[in-house]
Known about the structure:
- By secondary structure, this protein is mainly beta.
- The chain is built from no helices and 11 strands.
- The chain has strands spanning 4-7, 10-13, 18-24, 31-37, 44-50, 55-57, 65-70, 75-80, 89-96, 108-109, 113-118.
- β7 (65-70) and β8 (75-80) form a beta hairpin.
- The protein is globular, with a radius of gyration of 13 Å.
- The relative contact order is 0.33.
Amino acid sequence: QVQLVESGGGLVQAGGSLKLSCAPSIRTFGAMGWFRQAPGKEREFVAAITWSGSSTYSDSVKDRFTISRDNAKNTVYLQMNSLKPEDTAVYYCAARNRATLSTSAYDYWGQGTQVTVSS
């Protein structure tokens, strides 16, 4: 059974940084992404990256967040800089078999890691 193991969440002050990691338990995937869900809101797309390194971001995080992957370690990262209170949410890692970028269609999901940004 595929598991996506997320780590790196926590509490940080506004303007600070956090780095999230996601490591699939079994195999590599064509593309992986990060989503987030704030209290009372729907889950939203944050960023995605393909096996070859192509990436895309939501407008709300572009220029502040960076998604990357280490294929040798089979791990995807989300570097979050200049964090704002509105970035507070549970962040989910997701994986898809197809090696194309997507903002919604993913096959597997992690359990989420909490990110809290204090003002």
